[in-house]
Amino acid sequence: MNLRKKLNVLALLLVAILTIFSCSKSDGTVLLWTDRPEFAEYAELFNSTSSDLKVVIRYRENIAQSLPPTHDEQKPDIIVGEGFTEAQVEKYFLPLDYLFSDLHINRQQFYPQLLDSGFLSGKQYLLPISFNLPLVIFSETNDNLIPDPYVINTDQIRDISAEFNKQNKSGAYTSMGFAPGWDSEFLYVVAKLYKTNFTMEADNFKWDDENLKKSIQYLKSWTEEKNTSTTAEQDYKYKYLYTTETKWITEGHCTFAYNTSASLFKMDDDSLSGLDFRWLTADGIIPIEDTILYIGMYKDSKKLKDAQQFIIWFMQEQNQKAMLEWSRKMNLTIKDFGIAGGFSSVRNVNELYFPIYYPLLLGNLPPKDSLYANSHILPERWSSLKEKVIIPYLTDIVNTTKTSGQSSSLETLYAIWKRQYY
Q1: CB count, 10 Å around CB of 28?
Q2: What kind and span of H or E run contains 20?
Q3: Are 57 and 43 in contact (CB under 8 A)?
Q4: Whose CB among 40, 99, 170, 211 lies 3.0–4.6 Å from 15's, allowing a Cys bridge?
Q5: Are 177 and 160 in contact (CB under 8 A)?
Q6: Burial of 409 (0-12, 13-18, 19+ CB in 10 A)
Q7: How many CA atoms are closer than 13 Å to the CA of 45, on its beta-carbon side?
Q8: Helix-strand-coil percent breakdown of the chain, rounded to 5?
Q9: Which residue in 10, 113, 179 sits closest to 347, CA to CA?
Q10: Range name among 18-27, 49-58, 252-261 with the lowest pLDDT average
Q11: Cα(219)–Cα(394) distance, rounded to whole angstroms?
């Protein structure tokens, strides 16, 4: 376990101990399972404002694999996490539709794309908490090259960056604006922008094969037409791009670098100095990162009314504003972005309060109608499938030095992964 994770676990355990002690004279407690350390802070904030109910945090390394609870452990009342299978959601979570019908929570306060992802079999089982988005960073001196103040599409990245390409007499690049293969996550995001719709339904891995082929052809053509070859792109990366992505930009080694909101907005002011960014888009959509965080009530909880009280509290704008302020006052060495590591699922929180704490967002919040989410909850094993199947496939198939037939098919890689996983 790395240092960051150890600190997170210790923080959660400490809050759990302190909370249990403080609850000895209270009317009741609710137990919240999570692997997100930020909820130690949120529970402390809630407990400081509640006289009749206290939240106890219990850390679980992997929430999805922790369900159901064993016979000898206390059942949770609230669960916060990601990576649940649809079967788990329907079996272990209580539908929350009544929170909308009883006007405890306003459905309109959420981004509908996020809310839909927690909607199964005609019922709202999970409420989204936070999410992140892909973006590209660049030097603020190049602002004039990008016409839209909010977004940049892949065609613009391709064409603008190509203007910065320079080669010496031997053909080696001495300057290169951007290459798709510098970051394998960028390849994945482009596939998502083409609505390849990678997803898992039950135990079936599915995708839109026609759109996948279009994204592959687009990426290969980009490399061949603008950067000569994959070899040339990688040679440049190994020679010049030996530090962090922000350094690539500030030291003038490239024009654009891929990043995400979760990574960019937890950087300190010095690291962000001289940088600007745009949300990554194509055909008017910005793909939401796979890691959407959810909250739900455990079906077998005996304290559903109390659990409901905390969820309602958590989803109120003024309380999320207090969470942002609380996190800033704590002045932690290890900081995360926003609400539980991302943008809030509550639109007004992002629009009204995030620019106060993250000045780079002032005038550059993501257009709400452009957000695009996977229609299915992605299970815990998805991260493994993405890492061991999708990313290796995309990296290999867009390599311009390989001929047709040299790359393993997506079906073959999936079959190998499935044998290993199961």
Answers
A1: 12
A2: helix 3-22
A3: yes
A4: 40
A5: yes
A6: exposed
A7: 21
A8: 45, 20, 35
A9: 113
A10: 18-27
A11: 10
Tokens, residue 85: 């299978």
The predicted-structure confidence for 379-421, as pLDDT tens digits, reads as follows: 888 999 999 999 999 999 999 998 766 788 999 999 999 988 7
First to last CA, the chain: 25
Tens digit of each residue's pLDDT (9 = 90 or more) over 122-132:
999 999 999 99
Beta bridge partners of 127: 295
Distance CA 30, CA 328 (A): 26
Query: Tokens 């209270």, residue?
Result: 26
The confidence band for 181, taking pLDDT boundaries of 50, 70 and 90, is: very high
The three-point CA angle 269-272-276 to 5° equals: 135
Judge whether 78 and 32 are in contact, CB under 8 Å: yes
Torsion of CA 363, 368, 374, 376, to 10 degrees: 130
Distance, in Å, from the CA atom of 111 to the CA atom of 342, rounded to the nearest integer, reads 14
H or E segment and range at residue 57: strand 54-59
